[in-house]
Amino acid sequence: MSDAGHSTATSAPGVDTAAGSLRWLMAQLRIGRARAATISLCAIGATGGGVLATMLFGAVTNVIVDGTVGDGAVMDWKRLWTLLGIQLAVYLLAASLTYTQGQLLTRAVQRSVAMLRTRIEDKIHRLPLRYFEQTSRGALVSRLTAHTDNASTVIAPVLVTVPTNALTLVVVTAVLFVLSPVLALVALVAGPVSAALASYISRRSRPHQETRWTTTAALAGHIEETLSARRMLQGYNAEAVAARRFDALNERLFRSERSAQWTAGTLAPVLAAINAVVFLILAVLGGLMVVDGTLSLGAAQVAIIFAEQLTNAVRQLAGFVTKIQSGTVSASKVREVLEAPDDDAVQSRPEGGGFEYMGRHRNPPEIVFRDVSFAYSADAPVLKGVNLRLRPGTTTAIVGSTGAGKTTLTNLLQAFYRPTIGSITIDGEDVADLGAHRARTGMAVVTQEPWLFTGTVRENIAYGVAGDETAVARAVHDGHLDQIVAALPDGLDTVIGQESENLSAGEKQLVTVARAIAASPRILILDEATSSADPRTELLVQRALNRLRAGTTTLVVTHRMATAALADQIVVLEAGEIVEVGSHDELLAAGGVYARRCGVV
Ligand SMILES: Nc1ncnc2c1ncn2[C@@H]1O[C@H](COP(=O)(O)OP(=O)(O)OP(=O)(O)O)[C@@H](O)[C@H]1O
Ligand SMILES: [Mg+2]
Q1: Are 524 and 554 in contact (CB under 8 A)?
Q2: Which CATH number belongs to the domain containing residue 135 in this structure?
Q3: Which atom of ligand 1 is nearest to the CA of 528?
């Protein structure tokens, strides 16, 4: 019934066949063998009960017929009541088994899904940065939520629908053959016909299911983007552009949704028609046989009910195929995330908050870039043979044109990427060996785009040093935030956020710098951290940072020469290569690129 063969052709690395995804999903379940067996046994028991009850029904009919038809017929009341009593008991037992099975299953499935979600969440912290650059946020969010839920909808069918219906098929077929081989053959011919049709139709549905999910994800991503860029959209009067993109995606979703639903819509009436024809043939044949006397009325009744059950079982299995189609597409998406290679630098979840662990009184480290070359994609080298030594407790400024590779250099130091060639060492230990988590302990970074979360100014500054009031106060002072905080309606308790408009761009930057100061890092990386502040404020902040440097090895990326001039060492990076290194005075005297930038030459 599964269409494993079909999807093999379309399987790409990471995307699995339907059967493969299904096997994988079942392996992920934490239901436990005993519980799964109990669930299946309950379901099988209930099915067996149903079959038995039907056969008793035939026996009851025969007792009534024997007791009423013909001369001198005497109703065997004792037998009749006994049979009816047994039948009632069987029905009750089957019902309670169905109930137990349902309860067990629901609980087990929900727990497994919750666990699966935890694992994805966990995984997201271990995925390399590269993964997020290549995957849209909408796709990730839908994997965490909708796909996980949808994948879980195949669990119940696999544990219940398949075993019970397979059992029904076998038992009912066997009993039918005993009752009347002719009627059994008629009913049996209908089975494969229905099954073949069902598998043919659902085979056509898998690609539509794929499109449906990818489009849903794209749509979610688009909405998220539109929301976060709404000012820009309005500023450019580009609402119409966004609306057009939305319409196109919406239309595509509608089409794929319609095509996917088409399966379910076509399958049911086709199978119902086949059923009706089979039922008609059975009724006529059965009736003729009863008249002939080759079949008792009770047996004919049971045969017809069984034939109905047989086709029902086939129909349920067919419906299961459609569900599986959609569920396995989702399962393979979830699997893709869970099986994506980890950031090789991240070993495990950090124990405890990062900053406490490294100890704030350790000495600043020496950082050495040795022959570092790096490329994001194979054909475009971004850094070429960078050799650089950051002595403990000094400040190194990196200057250079836009796109020279300055931010890339800081990314490598943070172990977001590994150098293609060469190595970076912190106190003699290779960053690659340290692993991202250890390399990043004691490191504070202020990136080009200030990142604030929704919370108070205090919470934003105290990120990583929770509760340390003196650290916050010092950071506010050294980061030259005093006046800004004083002007805020609730001071340090004013709620700010990435989207909030109560802070200017420069003020947001200063908050993130204060956060870095509060963390008392051993390694401080500032990438254009104060570029939006006015030159005077920037200089004041840099001076304050310079006072801290006894405990910190600092890397400052800057376009402002006055800021660079404060550094112990200035590195000029052009097109991924270091072209000059030296102090402000040395570089001015040398009269090279730096001197030209300063307007001296
Ligand atoms: N994630 C990435 N994937 C692929 N290429 C990238 C990526 N990030 C940067 N690049 C490329 O690497 C080069 C260096 O980028 P980088 O961000 O290091 O420049 P930069 O010196 O920091 O520039 P700026 O002064 O504008 O911040 C650029 O040509 C850029 O296109
Ligand atoms: Mg940059």
Answers
A1: yes
A2: 1.20.1560.10
A3: 27
Cα–ligand 2 centroid distance for 257 (angstroms): 43
Q: Give residue 89's pLDDT band: very low, low, confident or very high (50, 70, 90).
A: very high
- pLDDT tens profile 31-81: 777 888 888 889 888 888 888 888 888 888 888 888 887 777 788 889 889
Measured in Å, residue 409 CA sits from the centre of ligand 1 at 10
Q: What is the mean pLDDT of the chain?
A: 82
Q: What average pLDDT does this structure show over 241-256?
A: 91
How far apart CA 365 and CA 375 sit, in angstroms, is 26
d(CA 14, CA 423): 31
- Token pair in block for residue 56: 């008793």
Q: Which domain holds residue 235?
A: 20-339
Task: Tell me how many domains the chain contains.
Answer: 2
Q: State the Cα–Cα distance between residues 560 and 534, nearest whole angstrom.
A: 11
Span from the CA of 225 to the centroid of ligand 1 (angstroms):
22
Residues 268 and 166 reside in one and the same domain:
yes
Q: Which one-letter DSSP state was computed for residue 448?
A: S
- Report the percentage of the chain scoring pLDDT > 90: 19
Q: Are residues 71 and 155 in the same domain?
A: yes
The pTM score is 0.67
Residue 522 CA to residue 416 CA, distance in Å, equals 18
